[in-house]
From TrEMBL:
UniProt-recorded name of the protein: Transcobalamin-like C-terminal domain-containing protein
Top-level taxon: Eukaryota
Entry keyword annotation includes Metal-binding: no
Keyword Signal included in the entry's annotation: yes
Residues of the Transcobalamin-like C-terminal domain: 61-136
Length: 139
């Protein structure tokens, strides 16, 4: 008897949550942006893109990079160095490291649809419709 009553309560809760989320989706379509990591400078070359929902909580690009890595580490693995006060600097995607020395000069350029970003991954907050691209380019 007790079990039956609990089941009824749970079913009702599921109905309420289900109806509520459908209504919310209808009113506010999911806002997204796309993130691409691309390298055609040295092997292994790759060009991987993912569409991610913009979070309700204010989030920086580095937070979305973590989400992409959680979804598919084989396409969006990254390596960073933390600089005090400045935040994270991207060293590598998918183990392809940027190099800056006498014989080789390249870096992971970050851009959106308007061009190169002048802030880093710890500062930039992706906006709805953004096309953020990380590309290994020659310096
Ligand atoms: C990477 O793929 C996207 C489509 O997903 C394309 O628009 C873009 O030009 C490609 N970039 C390179 C460097 O091939
Ligand atoms: C530059 O860095 C690359 C990769 O670490 C290395 O193979 C190369 O020998 C370096 N060149 C010089 C001049 O240090
Ligand atoms: C960047 O591009 C978007 C549209 O693609 C535009 O709405 C926005 O104003 C641009 N931002 C800047 C700073 O140019």
């Amino acid at each position: 008897m007790k079990t039956a009553r609990y089941s009824l309560v749970i079913v009702c809760l599921m109905c309420i949550i289900g109806v509520h989320s459908t209504a919310a989706d209808h009113i506010r379509p999911i806002r997204t942006f796309t993130m691409t990591v691309t390298n055609s400078l040295k092997t292994p070359m790759f060009n991987n893109s993912i569409t991610l929902p913009i979070r309700w909580i204010r989030s920086r690009l580095i937070d979305y990079m973590e989400t992409a890595g959680d979804i598919d580490q084989s396409k969006f693995k990254f390596t960073v160095t933390y600089f005090a006060k400045l935040g994270y600097f991207v060293n590598a995607f998918n183990d392809v490291y940027s190099v800056w020395n006498a014989s080789e000069k390249n870096y992971w350029r970050i851009s959106n649809q308007n061009g190169s970003l002048n802030v880093g991954v710890s500062t930039y907050e992706p906006q709805k419709g953004d096309r953020v691209v990380f590309e290994l380019v020659s310096g």
